[in-house]
Design brief:
The protein has 10 helices and 20 strands. By secondary structure, it is an alpha+beta fold. It folds into 2 domains: 104 residues, Peptidoglycan synthesis regulatory factor (PBP3), Domain 2, CATH 2.60.410; 225 residues, 3-Layer(aba) Sandwich (Beta-lactamase), CATH 3.40.710.10.
């Protein structure tokens, strides 16, 4: 064999080997990007907050909507009991329509009632030996806003008020209530403080429980010893108000977190408004309801803008691309001036891609809620040819 011929063939072999490797290399991924990274709903939300205290608005799916500027922690009185009830139902979930386990009132429970009554606190009368279901305990806590029942719940759930208060503060952090400190279970203590912002978060979390929703919308309830008790929230059941909680002390003034169910495009929603530090309970209720009524009609369902360029673009490195489109109109629920984030991700990377194939998803994020929308290719994408693979 000719040694020179053998050596001469080596470069050819290397070129062929390199070309084979180059052609066989995995293809780079196609990329998908939204046409726009965000959209803003037209207009600006128009609400008038009270001239004193602080206020905030929130909605079930959107979370906090707007609030008074520079909020500082302030006493919240019996709004505290939303957290007490929330933890009670977390510890002892109560099925819809059920009354739950029975608690027998002890002599110690009756003594606490007598002490709270003597101190001028809100109470629900109890007597040793009386039997109360879990639902009745919730009714006594939330309707007449009984401080003695808050103590009963704390002892039942955590063994002591101190242990229960620790749970309250831990849960506040979990809910993102960064300006809230609980010092008691009822709100009598003026060092139990929060903001309108945080009380929207609290109400929104508590109202996810259907039993909680059922109790706070009751105008009255009948208990074994206390007999008929009435909801301090005298607006409940009127002007569309379905809850949630009132609170009044000298330190806190008057406070109210109201809830207002409404529908947009046949879809149910609930709007919340918190007002703190008002002159009287009547003022707090009136201001809150006025804000809810003014804000709710401004919430709308807006179609996601669509065009020939689609809502996203899929691009391949070998100079092929296609618009990505939704298969049906997409509605975005929100309020005027709300910013909506848009992001796209690939869900199918196989080649070739046929026109009409579902290949990606668009994430439409409004507040804490995200809806995922399927995207389909408007045009086909073919794998790259031999020369592109070779020269890439």
């Amino acid at each position: 064999m000719n040694r020179n011929l053998t050596f001469a063939a080596i470069p050819i072999v290397l070129v062929l080997l390199g070309g084979t490797i180059q052609v066989a290399r995995p293809l780079p991924a196609v990329e998908v990007r939204p046409t726009a990274s965000q959209m803003t709903l037209p207009g600006q939300l128009a609400v008038t907050f009270p001239s004193q205290g602080q206020a905030a608005i929130g909605e079930d799916s959107l979370g906090l909507v707007t609030e008074t500027p520079n909020e500082q922690p302030a006493a919240i009185a019996s709004l505290t009991k939303m957290m007490t009830a929330y933890l009670y139902l977390k510890a002892k979930p109560l099925a819809v329509g059920q009354d739950g386990p029975v608690t027998t009132i002890t002599a110690a429970d009756e003594q606490i009632y007598q002490q709270d009554k003597a101190a001028g606190d809100s109470v629900a009368k109890v007597s040793a030996g009386e039997k109360l279901t879990e639902r009745q305990i919730l009714e006594a806590l939330m309707l007449p806003s009984a401080d003695n029942i808050a103590t009963l719940i704390a002892n039942q759930v955590a063994g002591s008020e101190a242990a229960f208060i620790k749970k309250m503060n831990e849960t506040a952090k979990e809910l993102g209530m960064t300006q809230t400190t609980y010092s008691d279970t009822s709100g009598v203590n003026p060092s139990t403080v929060s903001t309108a912002h945080d009380q929207i978060l609290m109400a929104r979390a508590a109202m996810q429980d259907r039993t909680f929703r059922e109790v706070v919308r009751m105008p009255q309830a009948d208990l074994p010893v206390a007999r008929r008790v009435f909801n301090v929230n005298f607006m409940v059941g009127k002007q569309g108000i379905s809850g949630v909680k009132t609170g009044s002390t000298l330190a806190a003034g008057s406070c109210f977190v109201g809830s207002y169910p409404f529908t947009v495009g046949g879809v149910p929603h609930t709007l919340y408004c918190a007002v703190l530090g008002q002159q009287s309970l009547r003022v707090a209720l009136t201001e809150d309801v006025a804000i809810l009524h003014a804000a709710a009609p401004q919430f709308v369902s807006v179609p996601l803008p669509a065009s020939e360029t689609g809502v996203a673009q899929l691009t391949a490195p070998w100079n092929e691309s296609t618009p990505l489109k939704t298969t049906a109109p997409v509605q975005v629920f929100g309020y005027p001036g709300m910013s909506v984030k848009l992001a796209a991700k690939l869900t199918h990377a196989g080649l070739p891609i046929q026109a009409g194939a579902e290949v990606a998803a668009l994430a439409v994020t409004a507040g804490p809620s995200t809806q995922s929308v399927a995207l389909v290719a408007d045009r086909p994408i073919q794998p790259p040819g031999f020369l592109w693979r070779l020269h890439r």
